[in-house]
Every structure is written in C-alpha cells, then in structure tokens.
Predict the 3D structure of the following.
Amino acid sequence: TLLLSVLILYPWWQDIIQQWFAPEDRKVFVGLIGLIVAIIGLFRFTNLGHSLLLWGKRINWEASGTLAEWFGALGQIAIAIIAVYVAWRQYVISKDLTIQQNLLTVQQNVITQQQTIDSYFQGVSDLILDEEGLLEDWPQERAIAEGRTAAIFSSIDGSGKAKILRFLSRSKLLTPLQRDRRLGRAILDGSGGYAEDRLEGVRVIDLGVMLAGADLADNDLRWTDLSEANLVRANLSNCDLVKANLSRTILYEANLSNTDLNGVRLFYGLAEQASPRSRTQPPNYETGEHTGAVIENADFTNAQRMSPATHYYCCAWCGEKTRNTIPGGCEGIPNKLGR
C-alpha cells in the first residue's frame, strides 16, 4: 500500500517541486537531507553520542545557568548595537539616495532650461527675420520679442540669462539701429551689417527693467551691449565684462566686485567731460555729457584691469561711499557727484 501510494503521488510531487523550486534550490534541499542523515548516522553508529552524554554529566549546570544569563545579557546588548548600526546604515543609504536624486533633479533642470533657451533663440529668430534672412521687425513683433524675453528671464537662472544676453548682443538685437523715416526698417551700413544710431536709433529688444535686481554673478558677459538697461541692485560680482557696453546703464547699488573691467565702456567721449545719464537732458555722444552709467553706491571692490579713464569716471561720479571700494583709491580726483 505504501509503495502504491508513493507511486501514485510521485508525479504530483514532482510537478510541485519543479514549479516551486529552482534546480539550485532542489540541489540545496537534497544536500541538507544528506547532511542530516549523515549526522544521525554519525551519532548512531559511532561512540560520539555516548561521549557527549558523559561530558554533559560532568558539567555544573547551575554555573552554566549563570553563564547563560551573562550570555543572554550580552546578546541583548549585541542586538541593540546591531539595531543602531542598521538604523545608521539606513540613514546613510537614505542620505545618499537623496543626494543622487537632487543631482538628477539639477541635471534635469539644466537640460530643461537649455531646451527652453534653444526654443527662445529659434522663436525670436523666426519672429524678426524674413524669408531672405533680413531683419524685419515691425512694432508688434518687437513688442512680442520683448515679452518673450521678459518671460524667459523670470524662469531661468543667472547662467541662462547670460547666454541670452550674449546671443542678443552678438545678434545686434540690443543695439539701437538706424531706421528709415517711412517704414522704420533698419538701414544697412554698407559693410555687411546694420548701422548704429545711439541717439535716435530703435532697438529690436529694449531690456528696460528686465534685469533690475538680477543675479548675474560668476558669468561671462564679454562684448554684451547692456547700454541704457536698468541694472539697479544687480549682482555682477565675478563677471567677465571685457568690452561690455554699459553706457547710460543704471548701476545704482550694483555689485561689481571682482569683475574684469578691461575695455568696458561706461561713457562716450573724454572721462573729464563725461557725466551720468539724465532724466531731462539728451546725451551728447561727442562730448560725453549724459552718456555715462549711473554708478552711485555701486561696489567696485577688487575690480580688475580698470583703465585710467574708467578709474577717473568711477571716482568722479560714484559718490563718497563707493570711492572707498575702487582699487587704487581716488586721491586727487574730485567728487563731482557731491555726495
């Protein structure tokens, strides 16, 4: 009966074992059964079991009980230590995962921002260029371009703003261009570019107050045209401003510490005759009157490669507070601002 039962149940057990246990698990199971049988046979057919019984009779089990209590206490302490270690490892792993997630988020934000900037470049180019690649900026197109610029400036960081400023500057979209008196179209200068007109020209995009209070620190702003822009309280520290045009720019209380001012333009004409922009008087680009930047209370601490003309203008028109931050001092240069 037993043999018949085994023969009947064997296929069913075989299917169950194949479904629930992998080949490696079956090998381990068979090995464990063999090990158990071997241990039982070792105790059954050798003198090892009898020897263990005699050794157990000689043990003082009362002392062993006290020792067991000590081992139990030590075991509880060990369990507590292991629990603390496990909790600490969980904290370390969680911290590492948080750092990795933050880095991934930063990388995703950088990619998303670059895609947004690329779309802006393409959108502005399509908006103001005709089919032949010539500048065609009607008033409403200029207004839309300014609206796009203002919107994207509010959604990107300082490095993104610097990229857009470099693009707009090198594309002459921030430069006042000479226009014809009928259609207002930009006039070619005869040398492959568009003619500038600082006095009466019209910019494709007028920055206005878009960058007021902006954080542009640690960025490359070389050859950018920021003339007449409102950069009040802007942070330009550690920026590269080589050959940047800052004439008539409002830099009131701006941070220009550690900037590279080699070749920067703060005014037109001679430094001795130049003066900051005026709300009521038009600029004179021949003498330099009212063509200069407003630099009152700006910070020029450790500014680099400031030319003698720029140094004179800054000392003359920055005010008493800022004169103390200009490298080289302002001894012998009058304070024309008067305050």
